[in-house]
Specification:
Strands 1-2-3-4-5-7-10 form a seven-stranded mixed beta sheet, sandwiched between helices. The protein has a single domain, classed as 2-enoyl-CoA Hydratase, Chain A, domain 1, CATH 3.90.226. By secondary structure, it is α/β, with parallel strands linked by helices. 42% of the residues are buried. The protein contains eleven helices and ten strands.
Length: 257
């Protein structure tokens, strides 16, 4: 196992297990995104790696974007997305090896986009899913606007984006957001067993299948990501976003009227 302050990486039986390791809630900042992209690049070019497993340390998979990175002001959300989440999402979809998300706990915001861009999702019964963006006066990014409706339907995606309510692990399973839910204390073992099983499969055929699915279902992914970046920059400049961030930092409900 190799370890630094951002990622834990372990490789065995054809599986590269990548664990987000940024306490307290594994929130993404630029450094963590770049570290994850580099790990995925290594996995892509290492013939010994036949499956990638992505999880989170502690009780939270990831709280999404670290808002502290934006509090300095003057940051273009469009430029940020174009250099961080957009290439990460495209990389996850283009990597022709199976990617399994092992979701140990809550996941929200941009981290939800990362999870949805993975090929398969196994969740702890303690996991929950929050879209998050509208809660701070923003629109979905990180391909959430495409991937969430594709998996659970436009109506459900709209409701849980507008209300910012959480989706339980059981509901996520029923709707197809995840494909397996297991007891929390069994997640590591069962996720690893599934990843090893995937690693023993026909890698070339799975890669071509992923390419075909991208063509059939996600052919406009790059265009959607670019448009999300545009919309997010519009949202950044709104009074709603300023109020949403203030409310988040002050731990109070936002007042939009």
């Amino acid at each position: 196992m190799s370890e630094n302050e951002l990622l834990l990486i372990e490789q065995a039986q054809g599986v590269m297990a990548i664990t987000l390791n940024r306490p307290k809630v594994n929130a993404f900042n630029k450094e963590l995104i770049l570290a994850l992209r580099e790990a995925l690049k290594q996995a892509e070019h290492d013939a010994r790696v036949r499956c990638i497993q992505i999880g989170g340390a502690g009780r939270v998979f990831s709280g999404g974007q670290d808002l502290g990175e934006f509090l300095q002001g003057g940051i273009s959300y469009r430029e940020h997305l174009l250099h961080t989440y957009n290439p990460l999402i495209l990389q996850l979809r283009a990597l022709e090896k199976p990617i399994l998300a092992a979701i140990n706990g809550p996941v929200s915001g941009a981290a939800l986009g990362v999870v949805l861009a993975c090929d398969l999702r196994i969740a702890s019964d303690q996991a929950r899913f929050v879209v998050g963006f509208n809660g701070i006066g923003l629109a979905p990014d990180s391909a959430v606007s495409l991937l969430l409706p594709a998996l659970i339907g436009l109506g459900r995606a709209t409701e849980f984006t507008f209300t910012n309510a959480s989706i339980s692990a059981e509901q996520a399973l029923a709707w197809g957001l995840v494909t397996r839910v297991v007891p929390a204390d069994e997640l590591g073992q069962q996720a690893n067993a599934w990843a090893v099983e995937l690693a023993r499969g026909p890698l070339r055929a799975m890669g071509l299948t992923k390419r075909a699915f991208n063509k059939a279902v996600l052919r406009n992914l790059s265009e959607v990501l670019d448009y999300e970046a545009h919309i997010q920059e519009v949202a950044r400049q709104s009074s709603e976003h300023q109020e949403g961030v203030s409310a988040f930092l002050e731990k109070r409900p936002p007042k939009y009227i």
